[in-house]
Amino acid sequence: MSQQAILHAYRHLYRHSLRAIQFSKPARYTLRDRLRLAFRRGSATDYEPHKIQNTLEFLHYATRESGLEHKIVKNLLFVWWVQGNGGRAKVNPRTLTADELEIKTTVYDTFNHNIRMLNEDMGMCFPAMTVRDPS
Predict the structure, then answer these.
(1) How many independent structural domains does the chain possess?
(2) In a domain, 133, yes or no
(3) pTM for the whole structure
């Protein structure tokens, strides 16, 4: 894909996702950060035109009805928000042990694997990556 096509794909995904989440405050910032990270880290082969179109169609259905698609998008954003906050709202002042640190860095691996399988089965391109900062 060309740079122009990637830019348009980013804008379309962002716009349709904002409509799907109805511009709710914590979710819109989580969405923005996750999309930026995915497009900065990802390669151009991850964003094929048919995958973009399938994802936009999924987001369109999530916008129209409060059904399964809407619940999937809502839960994805909630888990990404919790992951971005380190799993809790308040900062934990104590230092983590080696076992706790390993658990906090690998806890979302199964979740990301499920997103990759969803993408593969439905031909979509939801970002499935872990931010490896356990703090």
Answers:
(1) 1
(2) no
(3) 0.83
